[in-house]
Amino acid sequence: MSKINLGALRRAWTTNERKDREDEISSTIDGRSLRATGRTEQFNFRCRDGYKALAIELARERNITIGELMETLLDRAREEDSK
């Protein structure tokens, strides 16, 4: 798998920019917004080199979140298994 250079997509955030972004995100995500989308469970896993960058790239291309991408992939895997 070829490596994707995410550094070319955007410059690194400064400490203040990162803190401001984290504050903005945390202020918009709360229990109500998670329940409204039906997403209340946390799902983390380790992956091989390159897969995280690939997930980010695929989600951005489709204008969806990584969570939505994972749900779509899992639904398709389930569909294939049921054939």
Search tags:
0% strand; mainly alpha; 83 residues; 2 domains
Task: Describe this entry's structure for a reader.
The chain is mainly alpha-helical and 83 residues long. It folds into 2 domains: 10-41; 46-83. Helix content is 59%, strand content 0%. It contains 4 helices and no strands. It has helices at residues 15-28, 31-37, 51-62, 66-81. The longest helix is centred in the C-terminal third of the chain and has 16 residues, at 66-81. The radius of gyration is 16 Å and the shape is extended. The model has no long low-confidence stretch (mean pLDDT 79).
Write the layout of secondary structure elements.
Elements: H1 15-28, H2 31-37, H3 51-62, H4 66-81
Distance between the termini: 29 Å
Given the structure, what is the number of helices?
4
Q: Give the C-alpha Rg.
A: 16 Å
Structural class: mainly alpha
Order of helices and strands: HHHH
State the low-pLDDT regions, or none. none
Global geometry:
extended
Give the helix proportion (percent range).
Answer: 55-70%
- Binned strand content: under 5%
Average pLDDT across residues?
Answer: 79
Count all strands and give the number. Answer: 0
The major β-sheet equals: none
Q: Give the total of domains.
A: 2
